[in-house]
Amino acid sequence: QQQVKQSPQSLIVQKGGISIINCAYENTAFDYFPWYQQFPGKGPALLIAIRPDVSEKKEGRFTISFNKSAKQFSLHIMDSQPGDSATYFCAASKRAGGYQKVTFGIGTKLQVIP
Amino acid sequence: EADIYQTPRYLVIGTGKKITLECSQTMGHDKMYWYQQDPGMELHLIHYSYGVNSTEKGDLSSESTVSRIRTEHFPLTLESARPSHTSQYLCASSKENTEAFFGQGTRLTVV
Predict the structure, then answer these.
(1) In degrees rounded to 5, what are phi and psi of residue B83?
(2) Which residue has the higher pLDDT, A108 or B40?
(3) How far, in Å, CA of A37 to CA of A50, rounded?
(4) Which burial class, exposed, middle or buried, applies to B22 when counting CB atoms under 10 A from its CB (0-12, 13-18, 19+)?
(5) CA B74/CA B55 separation, integer angstroms
(6) Can you list the residues of chain B whose pLDDT is less than 50?
(7) I want to staple A104 with a disulfide (CB 3.0 to 4.6 A). Which of B21, B30, B42, B65 is the partner?
(8) Which residues of B touch A106 (CB under 8 A)?
(9) What distance in Å separates the CA atoms of residue B81 and residue B90, rounded to the nearest whole number?
């Protein structure tokens, strides 16, 4: 059972367009929602993250929108560039004992075409 | 750039062999993790450690074992590799309640 549902699994966007990736979660105990970007042959790297007391967070061309009541959050990439082509993972985490337990979505493979 | 290193990057090995995947971090993080990632799939936590001499099983059952004798080192061992162990293994570390930093991964193929 997927605790974090991510869609779409693949996305093709024209250069300059907006890329939108959606995630939904069930467990209200999650208190931190990071997005990771992974290029082929590399490990995931933190892109941007949000806590549930904030509805939106923007860093450059990347924006997270968070809807606590709907238990949904999304990543928007404005002015998408070919260099943004990568796999994006949403995640949700909560305290579990002495560590922050992170649950990942299935990933979205983004391709930005010129 | 996060200072967490995994070796080897790629490993092809025969069935029945014992293997150890190395992971080291120079950030002084107490918490370290091993994730397994199959192509096109999400990351699944297989092991984690709170600190030296602490290791716990993750969400996904794994026949591998880990040890944490030093803060900076968190190796993963498979006593007898099988084709079903073919996957990418990602090591990560974090400070208290902060994001995880990932290594580049080890892509393991068991033939």
Answers:
(1) -55, -30
(2) A108
(3) 15
(4) middle
(5) 10
(6) none
(7) B42
(8) 41-42
(9) 17
